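Quarterly update from the structural biology core.
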Amino acid sequence: MTGSFQERSARGSRSAAGGGDWPERVHSLLRAEAIDLIALVPDAGHAALIRHCEADPGMRMVRLSTEEEGVALLAGAWLGGIRGVLLMQSSGVGNCINMLSLPVMAQFPLLMLVTMRGDHGEFNPAQLPMGQASPRVLEAIGVLVKQVDATAQVEETVHGALRLAFNSCRPVAVLLGQKMLGAKDFRKLARGE
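Predicted structure, tokenized:
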């Protein structure tokens, strides 16, 4: 290995953050499964997937001011015959808890793709509480939770979660681990790196 630990770590984070082509594969999977609506609160962890979806004329993108709006939006879309997915970061899980009673009690399908914070390499202590609690909080409200920590698992896990959500009319969350995505470093972002 060449370079300092920081250089190797930065290369590893860029590699993990790029995640190979998982965003492209997930976009293709969403199209194959007739997902026409993407509700989202923009997030760097989902950036490549968002770009693929935005470039797709068959997908409608709805930017939300807060994550729980997406739960209600996708429930209404389902009633209108439209299948959608909610993209968000783990910090938004807490915003959704009360609204998640809607798909749980009314038995609406809901797939949430959640980029995790407060875990591997986290620099921001404010991300720790919700990041650490997200899996337990989601399970406590009745959401089925699937976790992914390797890019090789993303497509299969999302595919299984899509089928599970729409076949069982249950909310399902796929938690995309920070180890896979790479830890954010806002000092580098501020410098334009």
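The longest strand covers residues 83-89.
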